[in-house]
Write a structure and sequence with these properties.
It contains 8 helices and 11 strands. By secondary structure, it is α+β, with helices and mostly antiparallel strands. It comes from Bordetella pertussis (strain ATCC 9797 / DSM 5571 / CCUG 30873 / LMG 14455 / NCTC 10739 / 18323).
């Protein structure tokens, strides 16, 4: 029996309630998925921002360490310049005194040519006066730059690198939230930077001395300037194995206080003999120059007051009474060096500047870990990331000796690092959040 038209009409709205219920559930599910997607997007944005901040902090550290290495290398370059200036100053004073001796014919140029050949005579006769005042001014300027500019720059860099890193990480976080960074905080959970750098004196075992001396060793001008020319014939029957000698002596050194010094001397050593001491060398100083505040004993034996001439006393008697010089077996120019010491040039300066090194010699990396939090519609989102600055020589690069001095070589790089799950609570530090802008 077929239903009547009235019965069909009465049953037509029974599915409406079920449809509305299903639509409501679908809407709620869509809203839930939308909210979940929004939170996932917010968390992904926070993760990207945190990773970028950590890497940026590592880059700041690497750049700071590379700049510190460049400062140290610049300091080495200035020390090489100071060594050259001290040597040039000694050489200039040497030229002055040699020109004065040549003018006074003490000894005569002709005698030097007769005994040691025309080349020695030309060198002695060509001596010209050379001022040393400008060299001392240049020395003072280099020393001032090393201490007042480079040294202070290194100290400021070591002191402010951590604050600069944290400020950079905050700036990177802010850049990822142009719409506003309210509720965003950054916390440093672990930080290797505090205590990583140690300041050492320039004259210490790990200081600048070794680098400066090795760098100076590459320059022939700073090497010992020693040369001895002997005469061609027997001078005295009493001393058949001895010949007149023309001794050129020169040396550049770094004293224990980290200041450069240099000396240059030239003397004619004539063979003499008598019945009291037998054979000996009578020294005739031909040129001398000393630029040093200390350490002149490295150039050879000398005294501070030596007679200008020996017309009133015998040279050998004065030597025996006032010095311990070896008049026969010595290889130096003690009289010329004594004249140089009494009229020395004083470069001054404050010595070698301080440098920085890792507090632990085995540490060639410095890292940190951060945690960021952001409040999103009543929910707190959190992310963690770690950054590290590490020393890495380029492929194919080797060092001359053992382990490299990592703060003299600008090969620091930045990288992401795995976050540490277990951290000591004492290592945690909260950085002022991006919402608290200076």
């Amino acid at each position: 029996m077929r239903p009547t038209r009235a019965a069909v009409t009465r049953q037509a709205g029974q599915a409406l309630a079920l449809g509305l219920a299903l639509m409501a559930l679908a809407g709620m599910a869509w809203l839930a998925l939308y909210g979940l997607g929004q939170r996932a997007g917010a968390r992904a944005q926070l993760l990207r921002a945190t990773d970028a901040a950590a890497y940026s902090g590592a880059v700041v550290q690497a750049r700071a360490l590379n700049l510190l290495a460049y400062i140290h290398r610049a300091q080495v370059g200035h020390q090489v310049a100071l060594a050259h200036l001290a040597s040039l100053a000694a050489w200039a004073r040497f030229a002055q005194t040699q020109a004065a001796r040549r003018t006074a014919q003490n000894p005569p140029v002709a005698l030097i040519g007769l005994l040691f050949g025309p080349r020695a005579a030309r060198g002695y006769g060509a001596a010209q006066d050379a001022p040393a005042g400008d060299l001392m001014q240049a020395y003072a300027a280099h020393d001032e730059l090393a201490h007042r500019v480079l040294q202070q720059a290194a100290d400021t860099l070591a002191r402010d690198a951590r604050a600069t890193r944290d400020a950079t990480m905050r700036a990177v976080l802010r850049a990822h939230y142009p719409q506003g960074d309210d509720g965003l905080t950054l916390e440093v959970l672990r930080d290797d930077w505090p205590g990583y750098l140690r300041r050492v004196t320039g004259t210490g075992a790990r200081g600048l001395r070794g680098w400066a001396q090795r760098a100076a060793g590459y320059f022939d001008f700073l090497q010992p300037r020693d040369f001895t020319r002997e005469g061609n014939w027997i001078v005295s029957p009493r001393c058949p194995t001895r010949r007149h000698e023309l001794r050129r002596r020169g040396v550049t050194w770094l004293d224990r206080d980290g200041r450069w010094g240099a000396s240059d001397t030239l003397s004619f050593h004539a063979v003499r003999s008598n019945r009291w001491i037998g054979c000996y060398f009578r020294e005739y100083a031909m040129g001398w120059g000393l630029a040093a505040d200390s350490g002149a004993t490295r150039a050879g034996p000398h005294v501070l007051r030596a007679p200008e001439d020996f017309s009133q006393q015998d040279f050998w008697r004065w030597v025996h009474r006032h010095t311990s010089w070896n008049l026969l077996g010595g290889r130096h120019n003690p009289l010329a060096l004594s004249y140089a010491a009494s009229r020395r040039l004083s470069p001054g300066g404050r010595g070698l500047p301080a440098v920085y090194e890792p507090a632990s010699s085995s540490e060639a990396a410095v890292g940190f870990e951060i945690r960021t939090q952001r409040r999103e519609e009543g929910i707190v989102l959190s992310a963690r990331a770690a950054g590290q600055s590490h020393f890495s020589l380029p492929p194919g690069t080797s060092v001359a000796r053992g382990r490299p001095d990592v703060l003299f070589l600008p090969y620091w790089q930045a990288r992401r690092a795995a976050a540490d799950a277990a951290l000591p609570m004492g290592a945690r530090r909260t950085v002022r959040g991006p919402e608290s802008r200076p």
